Amino acid sequence: MLSIILLSVSGLANLFLGFNRSNRLILPFVLLVLAAVLGVTVSGIDTHGALAVWNQSPYFTGMLTFDRYAQVFTGVMVLTTLLLLPFSQKYVRDGNANLAEYYSILLFSLVGGIMMVSYNNLLIFFLGVETLSIAMYVLAGSDKSNLRSNEAALKYFLMGSFTTGILLFGIALLYGATGTFDLAQMGNAVRAIPAADAGLRPMMHIGLLLMLIGVGFKISAAPFHFWTPDVYEGTPTLFTGYMSTVVKTAGVAGFFKLLFVAFGGETIEFWLPTLTAMLVLTLFIGNVGAVAQTNAKRMLAYSSISHAGYLLLALVALQSGRLSVNAIFFYSLAYSVATVAAFAVLKLVHDQRERDDYDGLNGLARTNPLLAFVMTVAMLSLAGIPLTGGFFGKFYLFSAAAQEGHIGLVIFAVVMSAVGIFYYLRPIMAMYMKPAAEGSDAPVFVGGFQSAVLVLLVALTVLLGVWPGVVEGMF
Amino acid sequence: MDQTIPEVIRTIPLQYYVFFATALFAIGVLGVLTRRNAIIIFMCVELMLNAVNILLAAFSAYRADPNGQVFVFFIMAVAAAEVAVGLGIIVMIYRNVQNTDVNLLDRLKW
């Protein structure tokens, strides 16, 4: 709860800093706040006791709970934001007039993300989804004079609000079938509906299906992924990085909680085939679509679709309980760190060379060895090569799914990640094998602080890859 | 005439509310999928949200449980926030291209 209060209050305070017209103060302030929130969250994680305790420390008459699950995923999201924001220094240098607003909106959207992982009532889940999404609509269009950014904002907004309607209709039908919005009570009510009930059971099934579609849109799972490449390409790179990490973590963790608490047990037989079909389609479209791309940002958009597919494996393997929670946690942490590193390099290169296709990366190994190395480690981690965090992330996911007997799915996912290696190697080849174009071979400017954060990102990725036990105690 | 509002709501069978809300929702979905003007698409989304509101209010009255009606207030508040942001985005686009037709926006391929 302290994290939500801190973020909201400092978001407001940050708006007042904006009056001051001293942009230099804002970034350190925001980073300080995020570091404080991270400290509060991590020190508050109670690593004792079973995972089954879902409603420790309830707030608002039990609508919001800060149990270990909520604290850990809050930690992942705050850490991701903290690592991403140092790369916004160009906005500070350019004297961007709306800087304070953008940072504040980012902090508020983080509150939405936290609500999505700590809810215990569908009302809070809905409010969290909307707090996160409405803030992202604004940030997607934050480059106001750029038509691509405008278009990304409009597409994201229309798709997002359409999805909200579908999600809400699902919630309304679930409410009609069970008579409650509370997760635990909903679980009891679902189990109490007889299997042959001709009235309530179809209503519950349709409601759950509509919620599945709604959340599928938000985490860009196929066949509801088609907005992703366009929106990711048009959105300013910094916020694309935020979108593909925090929004995805919040969506998957929040949906896992819903399915685990309210629709576990025998209800699983209803939604499992649908989710499995979505998973197979998502993995296929994400990985095959990424191969055809020539733009690094679009490639990362397809790659984020495919990662949504890998994360769905944990939802399919939900019965394994602790194993699949641990897999979601580790995977989203490793994926977020690697994605932040990749987007950070793209952002720095884009700031100077004004392009984000593969050719824009040409010759980077000669002009900026550090950037090229960071990008390489990030790509290897996303591809799941051993010694990087992504390897153990995939390992945990696959073993959770295998434990539940989904051997076919695991084999398919392994084949798909082999396809992934092909397109993750293309930026690396561009950086190391091709010379920079005439006139654009000046070194990319990287600030001292930014270099330190880049080194930290690489260190984190490698640490997670050689010593995964470092975060083992969480679940 | 001294019936309470939930009693008035209960004078119509529940399935009529479900059919009505579903029809309204379907009209909204069809509108989003077929219309090409951003503002009309947006109005259709509002139609979908209002279908949800009717459904929630009806369920709430039939179950004598106020939670559903509270949810409706939250949906209204969120819809208002969405309108503010959405119209802001549409005005921003209109300033740049003098049009609100979504087909004109094809700089990013689908």
TrEMBL record, chain A:
Subcellular location, record wording: Cell membrane; Endomembrane system; Membrane
The UniProt record lists the NADH:quinone oxidoreductase/Mrp antiporter transmembrane domain at 120-418
Q: Which GO terms describe its biological process?
A: ATP synthesis coupled electron transport
List the EC numbers from the record: 7.1.1.-
Keyword presence, NAD: yes
Instruction: List UniProt keywords, sorted A-Z.
Output: Cell membrane, Membrane, NAD, Quinone, Translocase, Transmembrane, Transmembrane helix, Transport
Asked whether the keyword NAD is assigned, the reply is yes
Q: Name one GO molecular function term.
A: quinone binding
Its biological purpose: NDH-1 shuttles electrons from NADH, via FMN and iron-sulfur (Fe-S) centers, to quinones in the respiratory chain. The immediate electron acceptor for the enzyme in this species is believed to be a menaquinone. Couples the redox reaction to proton translocation (for every two electrons transferred, four hydrogen ions are translocated across the cytoplasmic membrane), and thus conserves the redox energy in a proton gradient.
Q: What is this protein called?
A: NADH-quinone oxidoreductase subunit N
Task: Give the organism the record lists.
Answer: Hymenobacter busanensis
Task: State the taxonomy lineage.
Answer: Bacteria, Pseudomonadati, Bacteroidota, Cytophagia, Cytophagales
Automatic annotation (TrEMBL), chain B:
* GO MF assignments: NADH dehydrogenase (quinone) (non-electrogenic) activity; quinone binding
**Where is it chiefly localized?**
membrane
- Is Acetylation set as a keyword in this record? no
Q: What class of enzyme is it?
A: translocase
Compartments where found: Cell membrane; Membrane
Q: Note the InterPro entries from the entry.
A: NADH_UbQ_OxRdtase_chain4L/K (IPR001133), NUOK/Mnh_C1-like (IPR039428)
Q: Where are the transmembrane segments?
A: 14-33, 40-64, 70-94
UniProt keywords, alphabetically: Cell membrane, Membrane, NAD, Oxidoreductase, Quinone, Translocase, Transmembrane, Transmembrane helix, Transport
Q: Which reaction does it catalyse?
A: a quinone + NADH + 5 H(+)(in) = a quinol + NAD(+) + 4 H(+)(out)
Its topology with respect to the membrane? Answer: Multi-pass membrane protein
Q: Name one GO cellular component term.
A: plasma membrane
* A GO BP annotation: ATP synthesis coupled electron transport
EC code: 7.1.1.-
Instruction: Tell me the subunit arrangement.
Output: NDH-1 is composed of 14 different subunits. Subunits NuoA, H, J, K, L, M, N constitute the membrane sector of the complex.
Q: Which family does it belong to?
A: Belongs to the complex I subunit 4L family.
Briefly state the protein's biological role: NDH-1 shuttles electrons from NADH, via FMN and iron-sulfur (Fe-S) centers, to quinones in the respiratory chain. The immediate electron acceptor for the enzyme in this species is believed to be ubiquinone. Couples the redox reaction to proton translocation (for every two electrons transferred, four hydrogen ions are translocated across the cytoplasmic membrane), and thus conserves the redox energy in a proton gradient. NDH-1 shuttles electrons from NADH, via FMN and iron-sulfur (Fe-S) centers, to quinones in the respiratory chain. The immediate electron acceptor for the enzyme in this species is believed to be a menaquinone. Couples the redox reaction to proton translocation (for every two electrons transferred, four hydrogen ions are translocated across the cytoplasmic membrane), and thus conserves the redox energy in a proton gradient.
- The name on file for this protein is NADH-quinone oxidoreductase subunit K
| Phylogenetic classification of the source organism | Bacteria, Pseudomonadati, Bacteroidota, Cytophagia, Cytophagales
Q: Which gene encodes it?
A: nuoK
